Fold this protein.
Amino acid sequence: MSERQAGRRVTIKDVARRAGVSVATVSRVLGVSNYPVAAATRDRVMKVVRELDYVTNAHARSLAGGGTPTVAILMNNITGAAFAHVAKGVEGAATLRGWLSLVGTTGDDPERELALVNAMRQQGVAAVVLLGGAYDRTEYQTRMGRFARSLDAAGSHLVLVGRPPLEGDVPATTVNYDNEAGAYAMASHVLSAGHRRVLVLPGPAGLTTAQGRLKGARRAFDAYGVPFDPGLVRHGSYDYEHGFSAVREVLARGADFTAVLAGTDVVAAGATQALKVTGLRVPDDVSVAGYDDIPLASHVTPQLTTVHVPYEEMGRVALRAVADRRAGDVLAGPGAGRPAEAEHLVLGTHVVVRDSVRPPRPGR
Amino acid sequence: MSERQAGRRVTIKDVARRAGVSVATVSRVLGVSNYPVAAATRDRVMKVVRELDYVTNAHARSLAGGGTPTVAILMNNITGAAFAHVAKGVEGAATLRGWLSLVGTTGDDPERELALVNAMRQQGVAAVVLLGGAYDRTEYQTRMGRFARSLDAAGSHLVLVGRPPLEGDVPATTVNYDNEAGAYAMASHVLSAGHRRVLVLPGPAGLTTAQGRLKGARRAFDAYGVPFDPGLVRHGSYDYEHGFSAVREVLARGADFTAVLAGTDVVAAGATQALKVTGLRVPDDVSVAGYDDIPLASHVTPQLTTVHVPYEEMGRVALRAVADRRAGDVLAGPGAGRPAEAEHLVLGTHVVVRDSVRPPRPGR
């Protein structure tokens, strides 16, 4: 039965007294600063914190923005590996600062996204981080603009990761990766290996991410003077099943190709499986290139040559941008950070060469 | 500029009037019931909801427990595929009821878990769902008991998924799967194929999940009258790297084995890769069995024979238990649901036969 349960409200002084340390030390242990604390001291303080159930009070204010800042991450689907790594990056950088982070999933539903953004705003979170490609440019711009302004008005902040930047003067931070350049580099790698007939599986036609990956690939074909065949492009969702069925269908039509540019590593894994069950060897008969460089890329056989996207780093960069903006407000008062409001950060991508791409067999 | 921004608080009546529907219809559209609403009506109502920024008000109460119930899911690591599927199941069943769900990650840190549970309790969530195996039985029992009682006192509820049930009269719901039986079935499958020298990679020694998987395997050896060799057991984390390095190390020691019982599909993928780079074929030379049946299991080559764990179903079952308990309280008043408080639900597991296990080569 803790003192708190016995009715008296526990204060940080009670914790400090019982642990035999200063109040400053307790607040450092509770992580509202990054100040280092000896492990033994930390353990002793946390033991008292548990005994007195003190964290309850410390965190009572947390989601209300008064104490430990909290960041809300909203993604389409929690089982999507790529964005789970962004969330991991945000969480890592948040934990380092003693912040809390929460993830909500929208199931790709704008209404649910709206409900979650509003709920998080009402909870006074330090920032709402939205992950993932977007559909429908105009409706998207309108919706994001509303989110950005309503969060800003509430003293919170909108951060878009892996999404297109917003047009006009909108108070949001965008953290992106050079999607088109990655696709250009990957296609160039395949073309320079000698491939000329390439099946392209960019992803969902309406998704900005897929549009950028297709555009980057086409630019490479132009640069190499290789005619681009729209008949070898298959749009579809970013999943294993699409990679599998698209390849099966194109092979069934008797279409001839020596390489596959997959929109994601998962799509590449499905495409590879479809080639194998058809009796084609990867990369001996057909090369397969992925995109994202999630762990799966090095867990399949052959290991995928793919485009590395710094997902976890994007998450860390996003959280740091939020933290700096907040620090700026604290030091110079709200509004001081305004010039940084429409910050656009773009991280680089690069090709990771593994075993799934090699020159086409002579005669093909 | 919405009416709300103009200062007047928007009510559900404003939405109903402007959309030309009844207040009941608006509340149905906003998902506080499962009552079906025509798509056209839903679109019209949501358009008004957006225009008036009404969802803000509807969801202002949500995390405070007064309106849309919210469930908090806490997991060790958001990139862990198995528990991401439990979270997906919880979210699916929550969305079906118009509930919100949020995920927090603990990074396997008890202090962080405590901070998140307390923060969620303060937010008045309907339930806190803790996912994943647990270490240290006694400390774990104490900590969970505290969580369960403090959440119960706050009108919330603790749900443990994939964790050991709590001893004594603790107000918590446990949703589990038959972990040991799955390991027993998988080991029996491998032994009945004729394997006698089996490398076992159960997972982290202190983790209850790993202990159950090892115990199930040992029971199968006893049942088949095959001596179990503790020298062929390697504990380690549930990741690809452990599967890879454990197999490399055992092969380097010249130990002889014809099959690998991996603690998870990810460990199995690492083990398979290690065998391949050593020039051993799977399953021709060595068979490999996984556990979990996450998508990766059918994305690797050969596709893994593994144990199916109904992760997503566990999530749905957990959310339904919370919803029923809440409904019971609403209908019969708080306390009416008490008999169901210490509910233990255990879902079944079964072997999924794919391509990674076959009889050992003659002479081995």
About this structure: Chain B has 13 helices and eleven strands.
